[in-house]
UniProtKB/TrEMBL annotation:
Descriptive protein name: Glycosyl transferase CAP10 domain-containing protein
Pfam families documented for this protein: Glyco_transf_90
Glycosyl transferase CAP10 domain mapped to chain residues: 208-457
Cited InterPro entries: CAP10, O-Glucosyltr/Glycosyltrsf_90
Length: 459
C-alpha cells in the first residue's frame, strides 16, 4: 500500500530534480512529505484552509500564535463534515440523503459537473455514502500540513499527485463493432470501509452497489414498507423512457431493469482478501477498545456475514468481459487504479467518484467518459438512453426507434473512442512526469520568500 504511494512523488520527481530552481538556502533543501496510504491523512478544517487562502490572497502570513490557537481549537473536532464551514454533521447528511432518494421518484437528474457534485458541502449526503467519510466520523481534524497524497476527497488539504500503479495497464483493442453485450459491466472487490461495527460499513459505496445490482436494496425497502400490498411504484424503480417522441418517467419492475441493463457483481475470490485475518480478527471480532470478542467465531465471522448478505461472482473470461460496451468504475478505498485500463478498452466508462485526481481537469465529462451518481439512481436512465427500453432490448422495436438507437450507439462509440485516446495520450508515464515537475516548480516557488528568484526560467 505504502510502496505504491512513495513511487508517486519520489520516483517521478527525482529524474527531474536537477531542473528545479536551486534552493535559496542549500542547507535547507526542498522537502515534500508523502502520505503512504490508500485514503487521505485526516479530515481537513475548512476554517483553517479558508483563512489561510484569504491571507495568501492578501500577500500576508499567519501570526504564529493565532495559527496555533486556531489549530488547537480545530483539532478538537472530528469527521469530514469539518471540510465545510460551517461544519456539517452526519445526521444532516442522512437527512439530505433521504431527501435525495425521495426526489429521485419525482425527477431524473444527471451529473454534469463531477467536481461540484463531489463537494460534500454541496452534497452532504456523501457523508453517509462514502466509505472513507464513514470510517473517519470519529477521526480528528488535522492542522495545516503540506502533504502530498494519492487520495483525498474533494475539500481535503493534500497535494494530489499521480501514481505509477496501472500506468502500463493497456487492454487489447477490440473494435466497437465486435462488442455485442449492451449491459453495464463491473466486477470488483468489496472495498469501501473496513468491516467494523463501530461504523456503518454496509453503507460504503461498493456494498451499496452490490445491493443495488442484486435486488437486496429493494428487498430491504419492501421489508421496511411491510412487504404486502405495495404499489407499482414501491415495487419498481423510475426510469426515463421514450414514448411517441416524448420522454416519460415510468415505473418498472426492478428485476426487469437489472436483467436488462446490469452485469454487476462483487468478485468471490477477492472476498478472501477482504475477510482475511487482519479484517476478521482486528475489525470483525474485536471490540472498540481492541479486546477480542469472545462470542465471535474468529476464523469464519466475516465470511459468514458476507455470504449471507451479498452475492459474489467468479472472475469472467477476458474475451467476454471486453465484449461489453459500457463499464463502471467506482471508488474503493479511495479512487481505483483501473482508470487508464478501463478507458483503453474502447468502451464507455461510467465513473462514480468523489476523488479529484491529477488528470481530472483534462478529462471532459460526457465527452471522454460519463459521470455517475453515488446513489446509482441515474444508471438505468443512462443505459436506457443509449440502449433502449427493456421491450426494445427484447426485440419489440419500431423502425423509427431502431434508427434512433443506431444513432445513440454511434454517440456511445464516439465517447469510447475519445476515452481510449485520452488513456493513450494523456495518462502516460511522461504525462505524469510533466505534471509532477510542474507541481514541484510551484511547490518550490510557494515555499520561497523570494518568489521571483524561485520562478523557473528556461535556459
Amino acid at each position: 500500500m505504502g510502496s505504491r504511494t512513495s513511487r508517486l512523488c519520489i520516483h517521478l520527481s527525482l529524474d527531474d530534480g536537477d531542473r528545479l530552481p536551486p534552493s535559496q538556502n542549500p542547507e535547507e533543501p526542498m522537502l515534500l512529505a508523502v502520505w503512504v496510504d490508500d485514503v487521505s491523512h485526516h479530515p481537513p478544517s475548512a476554517k483553517l484552509l479558508s483563512q489561510s487562502r484569504q491571507l495568501a490572497y492578501a500577500a500576508k502570513v499567519w501570526d504564529e500564535s493565532e495559527l496555533l490557537a486556531l489549530e488547537a481549537e480545530e483539532e478538537t473536532k472530528k469527521g469530514w463534515g469539518n471540510a465545510c464551514d460551517p461544519a456539517l454533521n452526519r445526521d444532516f447528511g442522512q437527512d439530505v440523503l433521504a431527501a435525495v432518494q425521495r426526489n429521485n421518484a419525482q425527477q431524473a437528474s444527471f451529473i454534469d459537473e463531477p467536481m461540484v457534485y463531489a463537494d460534500p458541502c454541496k452534497h452532504p449526503e456523501h457523508l453517509r455514502q462514502n466509505g472513507e467519510m464513514i470510517m473517519k466520523e470519529e477521526s480528528s481534524v488535522r492542522g495545516l500540513l503540506p502533504l502530498a497524497s494519492l487520495n483525498s476527497p474533494l475539500g481535503g488539504g493534500e497535494i494530489i499527485g499521480p501514481t505509477t500503479v496501472g500506468r502500463k495497464a493497456i487492454a487489447p483493442y477490440m473494435p466497437w463493432s465486435a462488442k455485442t453485450e449492451h449491459r453495464l459491466w463491473w466486477r470488483g472487490n468489496a472495498h469501501s470501509a473496513f468491516y467494523y461495527d463501530k461504523w456503518d460499513w454496509r453503507a460504503g459505496q461498493r456494498l451499496r452497489l452490490s445491493d443495488f445490482a442484486s435486488g437486496r436494496r429493494e428487498r430491504m425497502e419492501a421489508e421496511m414498507a411491510g412487504g404486502m400490498g405495495m404499489s407499482a411504484e414501491e415495487r419498481g424503480s423510475p426510469v426515463l423512457l421514450e414514448r411517441e417522441e416524448r420522454v416519460r418517467r415510468e415505473w418498472r419492475e426492478r428485476e426487469v431493469l437489472r436483467e436488462t441493463y446490469l452485469n454487476v457483481s462483487l468478485i468471490s475470490t477477492q472476498r478472501a482478501w477482504s475477510c482475511g485475518g487482519h479484517y476478521a480478527h482486528v475489525f470483525f471480532c474485536n471490540t472498540e477498545d481492541g479486546r477480542p470478542n469472545a462470542t465471535c467465531p474468529q476464523d469464519k465471522a466475516c465470511d459468514a456475514v458476507m455470504d449471507a448478505e451479498y452475492d459474489f461472482a467468479p472472475y469472467a473470461d477476458k474475451a467476454y468481459e471486453l465484449k461489453h460496451k459500457f463499464r463502471l468504475d467506482i471508488d474503493g478505498f479511495g479512487w481505483t487504479t483501473r482508470w487508464r485500463e478501463e478507458l483503453s478498452k474502447n468502451n464507455v466508462v461510467i465513473k462514480i467518484t468523489l476523488y479529484p485526481e491529477w488528470w481530472t481537469p483534462q478529462a471532459i465529462p460526457w465527452y471522454h467518459y460519463i459521470p455517475g451518481s453515488y446513489t446509482f439512481n441515474d444508471l438505468y436512465d443512462i443505459m436506457a438512453f443509449f440502449t433502449g427500453t427493456p421491450e426494445e432490448r427484447a426485440g419489440e422495436i419500431s423502425e423509427k426507434r431502431r434508427v434512433v438507437l443506431v444513432e445513440r450507439d454511434k454517440m456511445a462509440e464516439e465517447i469510447a473512442a475519445r476515452g481510449r485516446e485520452f488513456a493513450m495520450t494523456r495518462l502516460r508515464y511522461e504525462d505524469m512526469r510533466v505534471y509532477m515537475f510542474l507541481l514541484l516548480l510551484e511547490y518550490r516557488r510557494a515555499w520561497s520568500d523570494d518568489r521571483k528568484a524561485a520562478t523557473f526560467k528556461l535556459d
